[in-house]
Design a protein that fits this description.
By secondary structure, this protein is an alpha+beta fold. It has helices spanning 33-41, 79-90, 180-188, 226-238, and strands spanning 8-14, 17-23, 49-54, 63-69, 74-75, 97-102, 105-111, 116-120, 146-147, 155-156, 159-162, 166-171, 198-206, 209-216, 220-221, 245-250, 253-259, 266-271, 273-279.
């Protein structure tokens, strides 16, 4: 019998980004990739990211957070999911802040309102080895990568940024002209990205606003991706297209991203929603061993 059967979970979303929060603190239980894939296939438990909480490893943190994509792969960061976790941990608390730890580092979270939370996503990593890329590019604001014929490419010259996950952002005049559902999986697995990459198309609508669409590695097209919004905002500043505080419109809603000049940290603010509370049914894990 799978030990996750009957474990309580929260089904949530961060501006449409489908999230499951599973609190395993105080237990020795772990989630395997096959468990994550099984949960993702459930009719009531489908997710973009599964946020698994275990006992804290560092003093001053509330939990160690492991993030699974729906294909069972691990993600280094999920800003929308982190806001959902912050809501869950602060739901019955008088505190308005909580510190979480992931494999990518510490994430400070702040409650700004009943359903509005800000996550400090840390500093962007901009060097080609930090992203990482398989080739040396001295300037990651615009690298040599294109889709389509050389004389008339469909996409070309993305910026690349690591915000806990590798991101490639293409700035385009019209995001609706790009078939990201077809191009995304091809670029996610491009040899230039040894750890795969999240692929985004961004259309600037003003220096303080953009429209963003994202193909997430391990999850596909999603309604929102917080780390992609952060990466796109950083890329816009570096390309002198946008300001350090910018509204990012995704299919599920809008995030406000601020790349703070004082300490180089990226702050992400947005809404969360609790959809329901449940427990895992035995049928979910029928094919796992």
């Amino acid at each position: 019998m799978n030990p996750l059967i009957d474990r309580p979970f929260l089904k949530m979303n961060g501006i449409g980004n489908a999230i499951i929060v599973l609190d395993l603190r105080g237990t020795s239980l772990v989630v395997r990739p096959e468990d994550a894939r099984a949960i993702a296939k459930g009719p009531q438990t489908g997710f973009d990211q599964l946020m698994v909480l275990s006992d804290p490893q560092t003093a001053g943190t509330a939990a160690f957070m492991q993030i699974f994509n729906c294909d069972g792969s691990l993600s280094g960061a999920c800003g929308n999911g982190t806001r959902c976790v912050a809501w869950a941990l602060l739901e019955h608390s008088k505190d308005d802040s909580v510190m979480l730890e992931t494999q990518a580092g510490l994430l400070a979270c702040r409650r700004d309102g009943p359903l509005t939370f800000t996550v400090d996503m840390g500093q962007p990593r901009l060097g080609w080895q930090e992203i990482p890329l398989s080739e040396n590019f001295a300037d990651t604001r615009c690298i040599e990568l294109m889709v389509g014929p050389a004389d008339k490419p469909v996409l070309a010259g993305p910026a690349v940024v690591n915000m806990g996950n590798p991101h490639a952002i293409f700035f385009v005049p019209d995001y609706t002209a790009i078939d990201l559902g077809t191009i995304g999986p091809m670029l996610e697995h491009h040899p230039l990205f040894p750890e795969r990459a999240n692929i985004s198309v961004a259309q600037m609508t003003s220096p303080s606003s953009m429209i963003l669409r994202v193909w997430e590695r391990g999850a596909g097209l999603t309604l929102a991706c917080g780390s992609a919004a952060c990466a796109a905002a950083v890329a816009a500043v570096r390309r002198r297209l946008g300001e350090r505080r910018i509204s990012v419109e995704l299919p599920g809603g809008t995030l406000v991203i601020e790349w703070r000049e004082s300490d180089n940290h990226v702050l992400m603010t947005g809404l969360v929603e609790l959809e329901y509370r449940g427990t895992f049914d035995a049928g979910l894990f029928a094919e796992t061993v």
